[in-house]
Predict the structure.
Amino acid sequence: MRNEIFALVDCNNFYASCERVFQPSLRTTPIGVLSNNDGCIVAMSKEMKKLGISRGKPAFKIFHLLQKYNIKLFSSNYALYGDMSARVMKTLSQFTPEMEVYSIDEAFLRLTEFQHLDLNEYGKEIRDTVFKWTGIPVSVGIGRTKTLAKIAARIAKKYSKFNGVFNTIDHPKMDKILETIPVEKVWGIGRQYAKKLKKYGILNAYKLSQVPEYWVKRQLTVVGLRTVRELQGDSCIDFEMDIIPRKEVVASRSFGIPITELSDLQEAVASHCTRAVEKLREQNLVASYVTVYLTTNRFKNEPQYANYSSSTLIVPSAYTPDFLKEVKIALKRIYRPNYNYKKVGVMISKIMHQNNAPLYFFYPNYLDDKRKDIMDNVDAINKNWGTNTIRYAASGTKQKWQMQREFLSPSYTTNWDELPVVR
DNA sequence: TCTGGGGTCCTAGGACCC
DNA sequence: TCTGGGGTCCTAGGACCC
């Protein structure tokens, strides 16, 4: 067993905290951030959590509370959150050469080479520095495995007496600590697994750590087995410093209103497709497989239909028109009239790095002909002048399918016209 | 629940081959 | 047809994550 040391740095209520950074007057106001389409609550400040509102609640259900509790709602603003995330990660990277950016608001730091430090002090320094440089409050959890670091961060966040930092390494009461963690809060144990485990009386992390391996493997596959070993202090979930190439890229949106006409769906699909291929290019990837899917609203009591269709490109590409051509045909194959559609999506897979794409004698390679130059220019313009400055006619101009974002905050950090003004 | 979007991994089972 | 064994590859579905 290796004696690893991991820290998990987790931003507190990340989206809500981002909004607050730019509106300091909301320091004590309950803040909620909504999902796309302003559909439901995806993030809350602690003041709002205290009101007993739960994540995932449909937004309209709390409209009557807004005035009473002076709640401030925001439509999600991923341009802002992405930019703030980059600032946090850049700050964190100063504390170790070995960092894994795990999600938009979390990073693992490998601190195995820092055994000699007072880890609690180091954690506090990390926390204070991130707050000073970005305005985002974070929790720091330290443990021998990633799973234990996760649990530590949860404790750091939950109990204010720890000042946002908790270290489980060599903790004398480790068993007691694990007993306080409900099994469904363990990283890797979701709703279904928790249900199964509870049936057998395995209610908390300590119990889970004591379960025989063959039983776990049979019930929860090798994934569950890894989790159990991690709880025992045996690090077996890989630490991924390198950015691993995506295996698939998805772009999809629910519609603001039900959509029936093929022409509207074609616009939406073209728009999603354009975004998906953009994401490919951001990482210098090419791909050769694209899937279009559509679905009606399964929560409505009306005729239901869902289907998908895929196409293979002759040559792996990141040239948007190559994909637009395919998704148009694919959508036509699966479209049926007279349904109220809720959502369409485009998924791109069979992805590889552009330098690894096979060369074909009869077909031009994406890198070789003018297509890459064209795409680079389009991307540069859209980056400088704003998303969709240049876009494809196929995406349409009516865009009646566009989502609703009633409570959108300004793009403080990514749009020159919306910079905060100091008077 | 009247519900967001974007990902990953694992397994079972079918297709196909010898 | 009262039907062998074994391997690989692919896909759908189910679980998980943020």
